[in-house]
Amino acid sequence: MSANSSTVGQLLLQGSACISWKQDVEGAVYHLANCLLLLGFMGGSGVYGCFYLFGFLSAGYLCCVLWGWFSACGLDIVLWSFLLALVCLLQLAHLVYRLREDTLPEEFDLLYKALYLPLQVPLQTYKEIVHCCEEQVLTLATEQTYAVEGETPINRLSLLLSGRVRVSQDGQFLHYIFPYQFMDSPEWESLQPSEDGVFQVTLTAETSCSYISWPRKSLHLLLTKERYISCLFSALLGYDISEKLYTLNDKLFAKFGLRFDIRLPSLYHVLGPTAADAGPESEKGDEEVCEPSVYPPQATPTSLQQTPPCSPPPAVPNLPAPPSRARMSRPDSSILGEDSTSLVLEDFEEVSGSESFMDYRSDGEYMR
């Protein structure tokens, strides 16, 4: 150890080993190489920072190769500079390969920016979701049906990418489905993984549509394996279903001028389909129900006919109030017409009479 320290000390104390210094400076290639190396080592982090770093380093070491070959005439300078330039070029090729591998198709890239990026979903997690749907984009022509009521099995979950889909039941329009909304989220949530079912509504494309679809079994396996993806889909599906419920609620508000609570169990009967031959029967039922409130008051003038003509007519006693209209049972959805507003409001008052439900008018005032 002491011998080594003494050797280093002697080298430091001795003068320079160079007998004479060159009077002229190196050429422009040498200085350019050092400037490029300086700029390269000032690069930042990240993918684009690595591109900047290895790009300038590759150019700098290539300039060193040229300087060593034409000016310095040193084989070791040429070999080392060439080796370092080759390593930097290989690193650049690796970065380009990774970027190309991470590139998504245009439809999936727009979907990620619109739906998943605001939720800060990692790109690698999003790739697993896309891989589950096999990276296929399906299409629907105008007026082509995605699902038929009572016939199409619930065996997938689909997300609309472009276009507009009309949802109807027994020929009655319910609401629209717009881009980046799930097409069958209520059906997906209504069944357990081991259950089977069919659609209760019909979905028809109003314009040319494109969508992606996850097979039911494959998606359930992914949700079982990845807890983060399971929580993500639960949040997205819950938000989508609530948007559809509020859309139905807005439709009721425009129809009756009264905003219903979406928790009411009779909400389906308000929006229930109308059969073509149920209109006359429902009107006839309304007339029969209203008849008791018209005829009973006509029987009271008989007591006035027995009084003498010369005597003033006695004071007519308070007439008994006409019997209240009999409360009808909740009508079935097949006999509830568009014009049966009174029956619907009466059913709504019966349900909302309990303290567990509240409603509010359009001006924000709550009522029981």
From TrEMBL:
An example molecular function term from Gene Ontology annotations: cAMP binding
Name of the featured protein: Popeye domain cAMP effector 2
Keyword Transmembrane carried by entry: yes
Biased composition (Pro residues): 309-323
Protein's membrane topology: Multi-pass membrane protein
Subcellular location: Membrane
One Pfam match: POPDC1-3
Biased amino acid composition, Basic and acidic residues: 358-368
Keywords on record: Membrane, Transmembrane, Transmembrane helix
Positions of the POPDC1-3 domain: 26-251
Predominant location: membrane
Homology family: Belongs to the popeye family.
GO BP terms, alphabetized: heart development; regulation of membrane potential; skeletal muscle tissue development; striated muscle cell differentiation
Region of interest called Disordered, as start-end residue ranges on this chain: 276-368
GO cellular-component term (any): sarcolemma
KW Repeat (keyword) present: no
